[in-house]
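Quick one from the shared queue. A colleague (R.T.) flagged Histidine--tRNA ligase as missing a structural entry in our internal table.

Convert sequence to structure tokens.
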Amino acid sequence: MLQKIQAVKGMNDLLPEESGRWEWFEDTVRDVARQYGYRLVRAPVVEPTNLFVRSIGEVTDIVEKEMYSFEDSLNGDKLTLRPELTAGIIRSAIEHSWLHAGPQRVWAMGPVFRHERPQKGRYRQFYQFDVEALGFEGPDVDAEQIVMLARIWKRLGLTDVELEINSIGDAAERRVHREKLIAHFEAHADVLDEDARRRLHSNPLRILDTKNPAMQSMVEAAPKLLDVLGEASLAHFDGLKRLLNEAGLGFRINPRLVRGLDYYNRTVFEWVTPIDGRTLTITGGGRYDGLFEQLGGKPTPGVGFGMGIERVMLKLAEVAAAMPVHAPDAYVAHLDAPAFANEVAERLRDAGKAVVSHAGGGSFKSQMKKADASGARWAIIIGEAERDSRSVTLKPLREEGQQQLISIDQLADAL
């Protein structure tokens, strides 16, 4: 026998019985994005490797360990499956000059790839919902996106989601903080693990994000970036806090929050929630005012976030959030009347109804079992008598009521 082929490790199938919750989620976030004036943009899954080296940062876990990179066998180009969505969107904005008419609000959704250790809610191919506001300088748009996320949680029925915010300042402030961090970590060199020692002089800010329990108390005592912020960065952060307070949103300032991508500045934020006994981040984002220049564009401010959809799905399943079942309005059961059954189904679809027309033969008894299993509200039954009179028997499946014979000309109105 031929060996059974299975999916690549860490890359999962979305099965039909799981798709209803995904469709509901996607419909929800699309609708909220539209309410806030954000428009869809799509960038390729494959981008030049250098795009992510320059944007994310060479001394990051993503670039050092997690990217799926390869050489094009035709021309030798170094290419990478995108590990996140923001860099590709900025590349597109620069390449096609789509900010010439002024600032833009955009959103995207799709697969991203990271060669991580697969675990529950974290896969090597996973999906993100991504929102970007390009060309806006003030904290008002930072707050807008956080408020937008609060609306999404409300629409999804999630109540135990908490907001953490921080400011990581601008480049000059981070340089001052960097020297203080290095001095602190060097004074505690005996506590540093291998990753921390490797990053001590190349990217000490990343050490603050360590998950190593043995380093936690030392990291907690490290100098805080908030203490070295200049007037402009403090004003931006104060403006964000004021706007969130005025919007009635609670938040916690987390001075260790730095995010895992080097392009951030000033505002950074995460929404966290308990999932399967652990507190996990389901959305993270922030401001990246220098990214356009890093990628060869003109100085342009930006702010955005990425949401890990698989983790949101885990949370929704855990809290059993209300989810509309994507069931048909009607199931057409018939004996030896495929043409008439199809005509009836098409008429109802013309009227905007979702209809499944039975295929594959079988008795009325077996067809009615399938009609009930489909979740349809109504069974439309067509036998020889119905076909000859151009009518159907309409039978309710989800509520009390009598079945009735009805002309196909009146069927859509009856439903």
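The two ends are 51 Å apart (CA to CA).
The first helix runs from residue 19 to 35.
Added to the table.
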